[in-house]
Amino acid sequence: MIRVLLADDEHLILGAVAALLSLEDDLDIVATASSGTEAVTAAEEHRPDVAVLDLQMPGKDGIAAATAILRSVPGCRLLIVTSHGLPGHLKRALEAGVHGFLPKSVAAQELADVIRRVYAGHRHIDPELAADAISAGDSPLTAREADLLALAADGVPVAEIADRAALGEGTVRNYLSSATTKLGASNRYQAVHLARERGWI
Questions:
Q1: Cα–Cα distance, 177 to 186 (Å, whole number)
Q2: pTM of the model
Q3: 35 with 9: CB under 8 angstroms?
Q4: If DSSP codes are grouped into helix, strand and coil, which group holds residue 67?
Q5: Which tens digits make up the pLDDT trace of 1-18?
Q6: Is 143-197 assigned to CATH 3.40.50.620?
Q7: What's the rounded Cα separation, in Å, for the pair 53 and 82?
Q8: Domain boundaries, given as residue ranges, for the chain
Q9: Which residues pair with 111 in a beta bridge?
Q10: Which residues in 45-80 are b (16+ Cβ under 10 Å) and which e?
Q11: Are residues 117 and 26 in contact, defined by beta-carbon separation less than 8 angstroms?
């Protein structure tokens, strides 16, 4: 039996996927979680063979949860499912050590087959998402620029961003200006929009 952990903050989807996968003779749903934090705790407790994580969840997102699970349950195979398959998300997932990445639009049978492939030691990346990622190229932003741009996403004042990041206001302005220039944006709000659109923040 392949021991599977499912995590999704949409309870209806979580319940439906769990029910459908439970019909498979070789899959055992050992735990479900509705947030990234819950997923990490459940993985530590149940030691699943494969964790299927929604990309966007409260608390830790799927990629942060995957990173934490790999630390505490190194043998666990990680699969991200998403309705927001942006190129930057795929790149971040692969850098985090995720073994599979596919859209939520897949049929339950295909998801079951991907779980088996990932469990067997293979990788599975949805071909369309992979093609989009290749055509989009890499993010021009440094990690610090991306972090500060993400903090600026809700229109937070520079002083507050500086406080949260433990940096001087001038330093924050320089990073945001650099990110804006690299993205060819006219201001930081447009830069945030462009970076989000590509999945870079």
A1: 10
A2: 0.69
A3: yes
A4: helix
A5: 999 999 999 999 999 999
A6: no
A7: 9
A8: 2-136, 143-197
A9: none
A10: ebebbbbbbbbebeebbbbbbbbbbbeebeebbbbb
A11: no
